[in-house]
Structure formats: structure tokens, C-alpha cells
Design a protein that fits this description.
alpha/beta, Quinone Oxidoreductase, Chain A, domain 1, Rossmann fold, 2 domains, 6-stranded parallel beta sheet, about 25% strand
Length: about 350
């Protein structure tokens, strides 16, 4: 007799996820069954829960077609391998793993060059396939199960999205010189990961801007050289003066029109800005200013499976500061989504089914 699996299903966008008990099916050929021991809750889960991204122009980007209900959300997953489908190789029962969730079709040019995160026919866990707000998850192939080593699983799980997203964004700025300056916008879960990784990836302790001063101590603890309020005009002037006309690089982990504009204006000539956040909004960009400042603007969407392997190998050396996480039971998932929606959850929430 198959065991029962408890999960929380999104049945209708914007409504509380439904506590559900179902028999665990048999794994299909090539699949790996992972018993989930830690599942991070990401801000993108909030948008998927809502079913849209607000562009700030009176238009909303519909996400409901890509995340058709009923669906188990959650894409930051770590746990223990419990079953292997026929032909599954590369892992064994009992292995502790972090699951790469950004799975593509496996056939297109992106997928065959380790860029599945850009696939136009995705099979992402927690979006097109059931994800981590559950006791078990079915992983389509063992290659997406990456050894967690000796990392605590509540620390390891967020590497699959917040950690990977920050790491991939920072890599787009490398290499940099130690005398250059990096500004990180946002000290939420992903932003704090960026602060934690900046010294290792770029050799620079970043400046962090966040309107919520309650997050500043966490940013400093993670490695920020200084913190500032982007709404403080005096702080903006002081930053421009201290950096001799602007920072060399910006990573926007917020993604509002205001944060994008602040980061763009903070850039010095020849600087580079990586846009990551998805909170929503818009701002005008004057093409002539882009030309005269000779700046580069680049988007960054999570990261590759290879980059997650790199990141976990780095993490296992112990050089990265720990992420401030708060563990909560699986049945608190709706409460956590509500708190993230309100913007009052510092650090990273990790569910322990």
C-alpha cells in the first residue's frame, strides 16, 4: 500500500491553499521521489499565488496560464531520496539533495546548453509541475538532484531560488576590481543572498539600499559595507559624492519602477545594472541617457543547473555567511504567504513538512 502525502494545493488564485491528503503515486520511469525536509517560501510564490504581476501601467501580466490550478507551489526544495523510477541513475535512496526546479523541455537549444531556466516550454517545479509545499516531490530526472553534502537542509533549500538567483546575477558583473563599488537594492531574502555572496563572487563588500531600516542589521551581518535609505535625498547625494559620480554596478533585487530608476540614476558612466526583482511597476528610460552614460542594463532570471552545482560546492566550503532563516511547519504556508504579501517577513521562511 502506498503512503499518503500531505500537501497544500492552490485551487484558486488569491485564495488560501487547501490542505490535501493523497496517496503517493508510483514514480514513472526516470523519476526520483524526494521526501521534502525543507521548503523555502519565495516572493515569487506570492505572485504565483496571486496569478499576476502588476506592471504599474494599469496592465497585469497573467501568470495563471503558466500555473494552472490545482497546483502545489514551492520551488526551493531540499530533502531525502526515497524512491527511484525505472532507469533512474546518479542518486540512491537515502541521499540528501537540493532539487533544481527550473526544468525545461530537454530538447531546445537552451536546454541542450545548460540554460533550461530560459526554456519556452518549461516544466518548472511549483509552476507547471507540483512543487515543494508538500511532503514529497517527483523530480523528472536524477540530474536535477544535487548533493546537499553536510549543509543543514533549511539552509540548503533556499539556494535553489533565492541563492541561485543572487549568484547568477552577481556573476554577470564579474570580474570587478576591489576598488570598485556595487550597490544592492533590497535586503529581502534574495537581496540578502546577494549581500552574502558579493565578497566571494566579486571581492567587494556591497552598499545596500532598503527603505525598511529593520532589515539593515541583517544586511550588515551578511556583509554590507554600509546601508542607506533610497528615499533619503541626502543619502543619495552622499553616495554620489563618496563614489565620485556614481557606483560601478547595481543589482536591483526589488523590481519596482522606483527601485529601477534609483539604481539607473546611481550608475556612473560605463556602469552596469542587473535587473532581478519582480515586485512590479514601471519607469521611463530615456534612450539618449543610456547612450550618453554608456551604461549596460541586463536582466537575470534565476540561474542554470550548473550554477546551482557551483553554488552548493562553494557553500559546502563554509565561506558563505548563513542565511537568516525561520523554520515553520508546513501548515503555516498560508500565513507565510500573507506576511510576505504584506512585506513584513525579514529573512527567509523555510517550511519543514
Amino acid at each position: 500500500m502506498r503512503p499518503m502525502c500531505r500537501c497544500f494545493k492552490l485551487v484558486q488564485h488569491g485564495q488560501p491553499m487547501v490542505d490535501t491528503q493523497e496517496p503517493l503515486r508510483e514514480p514513472a520511469a526516470g523519476e526520483v521521489v524526494v521526501r521534502i525536509l525543507a521548503a523555502g517560501v519565495c516572493h515569487s510564490d506570492v505572485m504565483l499565488y496571486d496569478g499576476f504581476v502588476d506592471t504599474g501601467t494599469g496592465r497585469k501580466i497573467d501568470l495563471s496560464r503558466g500555473v494552472a490550478a490545482p497546483r502545489v507551489l514551492g520551488h526551493e526544495i531540499a530533502g531525502e531520496v526515497t524512491e527511484l523510477g525505472a532507469g533512474a541513475t546518479g542518486v540512491k535512496v537515502g541521499d540528501k539533495v537540493v532539487v533544481y526546479p527550473w526544468i525545461g523541455c530537454g530538447k531546445c537549444a537552451y536546454c541542450t546548453s545548460d540554460r533550461e531556466n530560459l526554456c519556452s516550454a518549461p516544466r518548472n517545479l511549483g509552476l507547471q509541475l507540483d512543487g515543494g509545499f508538500s511532503q514529497y516531490v517527483f523530480v523528472p530526472d536524477a540530474k536535477y538532484c544535487i548533493p546537499a553534502g553536510k549543509l543543514p537542509l533549511e539552509q540548503a533549500a533556499p539556494y535553489a531560488c533565492s541563492g541561485l538567483t543572487a549568484y547568477a546575477a552577481l556573476k554577470k558583473l564579474a570580474p570587478m576590481r576591489p576598488d570598485q563599488t556595487v550597490l544592492i537594492l533590497g535586503a529581502g531574502g534574495v537581496g540578502l543572498s546577494g549581500v552574502r555572496f558579493a565578497k566571494h563572487v566579486l571581492g567587494i563588500s556591497p552598499i545596500v539600499a532598503d527603505i525598511d531600516q529593520a532589515k539593515w542589521p541583517l544586511a550588515v551581518e551578511a556583509g554590507a559595507s554600509q546601508t542607506l535609505d533610497p528615499n533619503d535625498a541626502d543619502a543619495a547625494k552622499a553616495l554620489a559624492k563618496a563614489t565620485g559620480g556614481g557606483v560601478d554596478a547595481v543589482v536591483d533585487f526589488v523590481g519596482t519602477g522606483e527601485s529601477f530608476a534609483y539604481g539607473f540614476n546611481a550608475l556612473r558612466k560605463g556602469g552596469k545594472m542587473v535587473s532581478v526583482g519582480l515586485i512590479g511597476g514601471s519607469t521611463p528610460v530615456v534612450p539618449a541617457v543610456v547612450v550618453f552614460k554608456a551604461v549596460t542594463i541586463q536582466g537575470s532570471m534565476v540561474g542554470t543547473c550548473g550554477e546551482l552545482r557551483e553554488l552548493l560546492e562553494i557553500a559546502q566550503t563554509g565561506v558563505l555567511p548563513p542565511l537568516p532563516v525561520k523554520t515553520l511547519p508546513l501548515d503555516s504556508v498560508n500565513e507565510v504567504i500573507g506576511r510576505l504579501h504584506a512585506g513584513n517577513f525579514p529573512g527567509r521562511a523555510v517550511l519543514t513538512p
